[in-house]
Amino acid sequence: MRVLGRYKPNIPLAIIEAKDNKHAIGDSLQQGLDYAETLAIPFVFSSNGDGFVFHNRTGLREVKEESLRLDKFPSPDDLWRLYNAWKGLDGSAKALVLQDYYDDGSGKAQRYYQVNAVNAAIEAIAKGQDRVLLVMATGTGKTYTAFQIIWRLWKAGRKKRILFLADRNVLIDQTMVNDFRPFGDAMAKLSTKSKTMERADGTNIDLALALDGKRRIDASYEIYLGLYQAITGPEERQKLFRVFSPDFFDLIVIDECHRGSAAEDSAWRKILEYFSAASQIGLTATPRDWLCWVE
After folding, report:
1. Which of 24, 133, 144, 251 could tie 159 with a disulfide, CB 3.0–4.6 Å?
2. CATH second-level architecture of 2-87?
3. Which residues, at least 6 apart from 165, have a Cβ–Cβ distance to it below 8 Å?
4. DSSP state at residue 99
């Protein structure tokens, strides 16, 4: 039997692997360690019902592995303190890491690799790292993962204005009506062309637009989604992104960034350079050696 211990939903801290007392206390420890490696969990317990073996993967204590009685079992707060020391999280960083995931009430659980990606990105930004690259295979939910990262940063007040960039209209439109739907009226598309889209549940929605017919920007939104091609180009008049002040966005998320958005010879790179003060998160299934960020 396996039990996954969480400090709160989607913040796993420990695994308990248990067998009956016909086995030795530590017989299931290696199995637990294998799962802990996959799930990025620091604490592993093995038990046969008579006691526990505790394996601490953080390296912060001289004793890496010890036998415990039930009355010596560490509390969630004890493990959380060790976890924060292991991750190097201070007070403000801990507050961000504890920000809730979005929950639609359906009981749908994120897959472990999505949780790993979301938590790793949040922890990196919480500690001041402003360039993050998420490499996830096609079909593993990169856009949904990006939504959860943005949601937590936005709800925590750490990132108040966000730009999501893609290179195909369908990616923007589907993202707005599906994964990003919970942003509601705070979200708009950088486009002059109105469009009615069908949601997954069969209902229709008119996409909110941040541009009028004269390509003037409504700066009252918090979440903007746009095509690279729609906000930049070889001619100065096409560089719509320059209408925003360089410090307007706190966070930029670049979908399919392997297609050239960060390449040194890419016209799209001008967007990242212009908003270089913002945190930048790239999403890709195809990392390349030349992929780099604007510092």
Report:
1. 251
2. Alpha-Beta Complex (3.90)
3. 225, 226, 227, 228, 252, 253, 254, 255, 261, 268, 271
4. S
